[in-house]
Amino acid sequence: IRDRSYTVPEVERIARTAFKLAGRRHGRVVSVDKANVLETSRVWRETVARVSREFPDIALEHMYVDNAAMQLVRNPSQFDVIVTGNLFGDILSDESSMISGSIGLLPSASLGDGKFGLYEPIHGSAPDIAGKGLAAILSVAMLLRYTFGLSEEAAAVEQAVGQALETARTPDIQCGGLPVYTTAQMGGLVAENALKLLS
């Protein structure tokens, strides 16, 4: 969705995607806008509210973007699925990634209709760091779950990453005296953990 320029069908599509994702998670959607100031946000809010009636089992909450930014810092675990336009999404996703400790940790997906998606780290393709040994394995977990429908395999990748982070760290998240691994070493450790979980 283009910054501050929306069509109703665009908002309907992304809202439906958010509600469907919430249905596979914890059943809560927070729609982020600035409807008290921006006219396009009022269209956004009205459209999301209307689409929500198609999903009666999913709880919908509206939140202004400034409050959402504060709430992410205060208590990020209160959120399940956040749906918002590109401008606010870019800001909130970078904030969320740094709450986790590094902009390279969180995965992201740009989902189209059906099962097609573009999966990458939350910071995007970042050509300036290509070839420097940095990667985002959790994007693969999203690919497995949302495009290929392989939930067990996706969960194994996520669990394998968690196990790896208990024993080693990459240069961007050094802490606690754990050994620092290159991306290749960390990838090998994650792959080894995932294979054990799936065997």
What does this structure look like?
This protein is an alpha/beta fold and 199 residues long. It is built from seven helices and five strands. The protein has helices at residues 8-23, 39-52, 65-74, 86-100, 138-147, 151-167, 183-198, and strands at residues 28-33, 59-64, 81-83, 107-111, 117-121. A three-stranded parallel β-sheet has the order 2-1-3. Strand 4 (107-111) and strand 5 form a beta hairpin. Helix 1 (8-23) packs across helix 2 and helix 3 runs parallel beside helix 4. The longest helix has 17 residues, at 151-167. The mean pLDDT is 87.
Tell me the helix content: 40-55%
Average predicted local confidence, pLDDT:
87
Q: Which stretches are poorly predicted, pLDDT < 50 over at least 5 residues?
A: none
Strand order of the largest sheet: 2-1-3
> What's the end-to-end separation, in Å?
42 Å
- What is the tally of beta strands? 5
Put simply, the count of helices is 7
Question: Quick one: overall form?
Answer: globular
Structural class from helices and strands? alpha/beta
Radius of gyration: 18 Å
